[in-house]
Amino acid sequence: MRNEPMVEYKKVLAAASAATGLDDFGDNSFREGLEILTRALRYEATLNALGETVLRQQILQHLKQRLQVEDWYKRHPEIEDVPIKAPLIGVSLPRTGSTALSFLLAQDPNTRSLRTWESNQPCPPPSTVKGPDPRIAREEGTGRHANTKSHLPSSSPDAPTECLELMALDFKSQIFQAFAKIPSYSDWLLDADLTSTYLYERRVLKLLQWGFPAKPWRLKTPTHLLFLDHLSAVFPDARFVMTHRDPTEVLLSVAHLYADLMGHFTDKVDLKYVGELNVHHWSVGIARALAFRASGHDKRFYDIHFRSMQRDPIGEVRGLYAWLGEPVTPDFEAGMERWWKQNVENREPNVHPDAATYGLNLDGIRPLFSNYTTRMAEWTKPRA
């Protein structure tokens, strides 16, 4: 991002319009985040050549998709009538088994997960594509699935993914801070109003569902933990599943993941910054989640402990489905068993460095999460 930030901001908007032949970006809610992001990348990120290229391409891709989403709505306003009813949304801390749970839930043929290839490029709407969708092959060719191989379950373009790419269409997403040191953007994001972000996510979900029989959505990303009030305002009938783990284990694991990702795009990762960033964001997120649940929303949550998922993943999903009032069909259970067996066999060891590598004092961090660990024990105690 070597141009002045405002120049770069305007150039990337113009480039997206030139690439698509379109000029309607829809609601202007995305512009503040885009401007803050481009400024932070210019002045704070210390990107290497690969980082500058990849992140500019990423921003350009989000803008191109926004233009195309708006164009599809303009030509097919009936997309707005597609119902999004009672989604189940994962809202856990990162590194708590929530990704494995999402893969298990994706085995249910009667539900709909957000797939990796359509998250990165939702247009054209999948229902309009005849035959094999070329986006699947393009996604496979990017090689992006290898980047986090030791951190996450084995993936594929058709696998479920988080909401981060859809949130990035409004330029309010933690995905950017996982790739670069951009503290001004990260600070701004914590206090941003993500109502517009979730409204745009719902807009894209309708487009993805358009032309197919309606199925309940299974969505997730840890970022939601920070913005539950905004998420609930847009999805008032949503129910939430929350996986739990010792926060000190979480913080070390996610800091290691961030450092690995950033290492592709900068020649010097600030490990202390990575540690501090994650302590700050996730301690704020947990405090907000506790307040949200205590304000009358606790009955909308189903809780699963990380260790329980490891011991009996199928049993935990059965419990979740009993709470939802939905059946675990034989096909669904068989799919979960196949996926779990394959993933356990292929999963690489996940080894973390010492906490001091990231400037973390775990004993000093624990008080920030003491209220949460007390509630976690209550929420995940054995059920009758």
Characteristic terms for this protein:
Rossmann fold, 5% strand, mainly alpha, single chain, 17 helices, globular, 384 residues, 5-stranded parallel β-sheet
Describe this structure in words.
The protein has 384 residues and is mainly alpha-helical. It has one domain (86-379): P-loop containing nucleotide triphosphate hydrolases (Rossmann fold, 3-Layer(aba) Sandwich). It is 54% helix and 5% strand. The chain contains 17 helices and 5 strands. The protein has helices at residues 5-20, 30-43, 49-75, 98-105, 116-120, 134-142, 164-168, 183-190, 195-209, 228-234, 247-262, 271-297, 306-311, 313-324, 330-346, 362-365, 370-379, and strands spanning 88-90, 112-113, 217-220, 239-244, 301-305. The protein has a 5-stranded parallel sheet. Helix 1 packs across helix 2 (30-43), helix 9 packs across helix 10 (228-234) and helix 11 packs across helix 12 (271-297). The model is unreliable at 145-150 (pLDDT under 50).
User: Please, what is the average pLDDT?
Assistant: 92
DSSP strand tally = 5
- Run of helices and strands: HHHEHEHHHHHEHEHHEHHHHH
Percent strand:
5-15%
Low-confidence stretches: 145-150
- Largest beta sheet: strand ordering: 2-3-1-4-5
Largest sheet report: 5 strands, parallel
